[in-house]
Amino acid sequence: MRKFAAARASTWKRAQSTEGYKADRETVVEILNQALATELVCVLRYKRHYYMASGIHAQAVADEFLEHAKEEQTHADRIAERITQLDGEPDFNPEGLLNRSHSEYVEGRTLTDMLREDLVAERIALIPIAKSSATWAMTIQPAVA
Ligand SMILES: [Fe+2]
Fold it and tell me: For residue 68, how far is its CA from the centre of ligand 1 (angstroms)?
């Protein structure tokens, strides 16, 4: 494990010195910012669903929505932290948040609508993560392996 960490650090240092890497890093940061926006939109959507479900006396489902809102906030925080580790800047600007996000903000009129929208959004939220992982793997990981 220590050997892996040393190899990774060495690769990181070498990679930082190349222009090609800089472009790749910027791409990764951009994709991670899309993932961040996606998570933030999910937080907002789950919060909305939590309060609306509470209003119609569906406490168990409401509690589930609240739990998901907290989880998505944790994901957003981790992504923001990763962006700063890459010397990037996490984009929390509310302006354009929905444009950067891969998931939509759908309020939903009924509990069924809300659950359906949340399920769709959960699948979509994985897209930027997969993209950034793939980009990361193509740029950094081969040199480490
Ligand atoms: Fe998430």
Answer: 8
